[in-house]
Amino acid sequence: MSPSDVNHRLRCIAGFIGLALLVSVVKLGALQLTGAEHLVEAGRSQRLANVKIPGYRGAVIDRNGDDLAVSLPRRTVAINMRILRIHRGPNRNKIARQIASTLGLDPTDVQRRMNAAEDTDQWVYLGRNIAPKKVAATTAMLSSDATKQWLRDVPATDRVEFRVPKGQKAPQLDDLTNLLDAQETTQRVHPAGESALRVIGKLSADGTAAAGAGIERLYNKQLTGEDGLRTYERGTGGQTIAGSERLVSQSRPGTDVQLTLDRTLQYQVERILARGASNASARRGVAIVGRPSTGELLAVASVQRDEESGEMRLSDSPVAFDSTYQAGSVFKLVTIAAATQAGLVHTDTAFSIPWRIQVADRIFQDHDEHATQRMTVKDILAKSSNVGTIKIAQMLGKDRLHQALSDFGFGRPTNVGSPSESAGLLPAVADWTTPDLAASAIGTHVSGTPIQIWSAYNVIANKGRYVAPRLVDATVDASGRRVPLPVSPSREVVSPATAAEVTTALRAVVDEGTARQWSLPGYPVAAKTGTSRMPSPKRVDRKDGYVWEDGLRHYVTTFTGFFPVDDPQVSITVMLDDTPPGSSGSATAGPVFSDLAHLSIRELGIAPSTNTATPAASASSTTASAVKPVTGPVRAAPAVAGSVSATERAESTSRRSNSRSSRNGSNRSTSRSVRGGVGNGANAAATPTGGN
């Protein structure tokens, strides 16, 4: 190669080297001038960890401000396997047991999770819903001098020679400061336990969204808080870099929802109902206690018999809102009120009443056979005569009766505050046959929910005005500002004079009729009992749709009313679902009503009435008020020691009766395998009987 070629090649090589250096210098300058922040941020993002700051879900509270559902701070804990891998099995298991013990977790489960981790796993989940105090205690234990000394004393044979990846710092044997990572979360708890939970509802499995029915679902948007965000930097070993934390956005708590329920009263009502339903051998039971003047629900309870144990427990759903019943004689209130309002009858209007009546191809009869007799409208309601009620309905006509049922609130939701509320069943009047008029008059053609029945009787308690039931009273924001919910306007259904006449008849039910054993001295009661056959969920008898697969008829029994009649302070509805043959509203639901009435008198502080006279059939008589309305919080007083309740007396009677039946070889099981329908069964061509 000639010298000129060599020089040429050297110049080319030098040029390439110079160009490469120039590109590098230019690139470096560009990075310094325009790209440094971007690269720094990219590097930081690889080390940054985002931490969600949960926005606490608003609480559900009772009328007195006591918690029914509240979210508490909790932690989800994970363990850093990069730090833990320096320890061998026996030593690692000892650390696991100590961590599990302090966190309140199962040691076996913690060891299993740690030992099952892959070599590439940095973090392993240990548990959730752990109290912050336990996490703090565990962190303190891991960083304590005693733990550090124990780790230093670990024999070399129990240590693992840890290969540190290039660029990472080797973990220290005695440094467990960053062993755990605890992420903030919340847990929904119910201080009253299962009480009122069917009304409140539950959250989904992950605790973030409302599922099923109840206030949690209906007010999910208001209750849900807004999460915040915090960031911090982690070192190569997963440890938190001190001073790197930064608040990106603050969390915001959700709004509290205040109910009209009283937590103490709710628990007591559930307890009384469970005992009464069990004594009656019922499948389910419902009890509603509230204030008629405002529609406030103070307690809404429902129970059902457990199929495995046979014991009564709280129901699976809010039965008072989502289940409908052909409730029988309690619907007679509407027939009597509508006919009175139309001017067709008064409480002293008399009829000739046989014990049976034929309507088209159907025969209807009273509960007990009797000779044809003269009965006033008051007597017809007091003795729950089907035949007398049907005669009044025939005077009224199907159009006016259908309208009255609608005006009293049947056939449409009350909008009480439950996503699962049923509208009941009120068939279109155009579809009514002649027998349907008779069946509707006595409550065997239409179906209503317990809350609809409770609201209908409040019309009479409120001098003829419909007041919608209320479950939610107000919302309370994070600053404590209370915002009452709008109250639905009341509306007149019947005149005060009509309400006074019907009240007279309802009081006669308790004073001299089917419920006379449940009068309250000093507290005049207006009420109605009801007993109705339940349509069979499966048609087994071509002629009788009320015969079940076990060959028996099953019954719904009801007792509903209000007191004191001169100024109603409380209204109560008790309904027992699927009671045995021979049941009556007075015998089965009556004891529960009586106990709830005594409970209400004590808890609400209701004074005895000074006016025990039956209200006259005039508007003026209903304005007298001997007892002032009770307002404000419900008192929570303990039960009187040594008192014997009506349901306890009924339980004693029931046990004695069962004992006699057992000796006679005919005792009836209280845990039937056949389960009843609540519903809208077909209008079977059967012979309905009157109910007490």
Task: Quickly describe the structure.
The protein has 692 residues and is an alpha+beta fold. Helices cover 34% and strands 19% of the residues. Helix 3 (89-103) packs antiparallel against helix 5 (132-142).
**What are the segments in which pLDDT stays under 50 over at least 5 consecutive residues?**
614-645, 648-690
| Number of helices, counting only DSSP H or I runs of 4 residues or more | 20
**Beta content:** 15-25%
Mean pLDDT: 81
Number-wise, the strands total 24
Content-based structural category: alpha+beta
Helix content: 25-40%
In CATH, what is the homologous superfamily of the largest domain?
DD-peptidase/beta-lactamase superfamily
Biggest sheet overview: 7 strands, mixed
CATH architecture of the largest domain: 3-Layer(aba) Sandwich
| Tally of structural domains | 2
Report the top-level CATH class of the largest domain. Alpha Beta
What is the CATH fold-level name of the largest domain? Beta-lactamase
- Give the CA-based shape: elongated
C-alpha-based Rg, rounded: 36 Å
The separation of the N and C termini measures 128 Å
